[in-house]
Amino acid sequence: MEPPETRYALSGDVHIAYQVTGDGPFDLVYVPPFVSNVELAWKVASTVRLIERLSSFSRLIRFDKRGTGMSDRVEGVPTLETRMDDVRAVMDAAGSDRAALLGASEGGPMCALFAATYPSRCWALALFATYASERNAPDYLWESPTRTSAPGSNRCVRGARSTTPVGSRRGCIPQRTPTTRLRWRRSSARARAPEP
Fold it and tell me: Which helix (H) or strand (E) holds 52?
């Protein structure tokens, strides 16, 4: 598959770079993680395989968020609502009335907000490696994935949400009870301590 032409959607006064590949029966908008570059992505073999696979069954629309990749630079940090509206601008420019949204990492909250704001424009929502919030709140205690067991162990601490092996990229996130959190922190500290 050859890289397509990079086009630009206007969102307010910011140009958002996007590319369209595939001619499947439905539109799929891929909302990228923190950093992306629609043109440099074609130089990374694993990303090309992802693009080719997604394009094999859909009309894939990928874009660079404002301030990243080929999109215009911006001052400060745009709000989630502003970045979510960039999804709408890209869909409009690409001629997509309704699409499935696929959000990776930071793209997940953008997709969720888009689906809630424009339910008639989103018929499916798929999220991976994402989160509901990046910050602690009284009703959402956030923990980053970390190693949670002793060296050489292949299990996470009791009471953790996941049973992901320690050697994998993701660790366990503790349940949100004070006792479990304390046990998780102690176990994590022991796992990081050097052996005598």
Answer: helix 45-55
Q: Which residue ranges make up each domain of the chain?
A: 7-128, 143-196
Rounded mean pLDDT, 138-143 = 68
Taking alpha carbons only, the member of 163, 11, 185 closest to residue 91 is 11
Strands (DSSP E) found in the chain = 7-11, 14-21, 27-31, 59-63, 99-104, 122-128
> Which residue type is seen at 87?
V
* Three-state secondary structure call for residue 78: coil
Q: Which two tokens stand for residue 185?
A: 């922190």
Q: Which residue type does 187 have? A: S
C-alpha span between 12 and 83 (Å, rounded): 11
**Residues for the chain: how many in total?**
196
Question: How many H-runs (helices) and E-runs (strands) does the chain carry?
Answer: 4, 6
Q: 7-128 domain in CATH 3.40.190.10?
A: no
Residue of higher predicted confidence among 146 and 127: 127
Secondary structure (3-state) at 92:
helix
CA pair distance 183, 193, nearest whole angstrom: 15
- Beta pairing partners, 174: 160
For residue 55, which amino acid is it? S
Residue 18 pairs with which residues in a beta bridge? 7, 63
Work out the average pLDDT over 150-169.
40
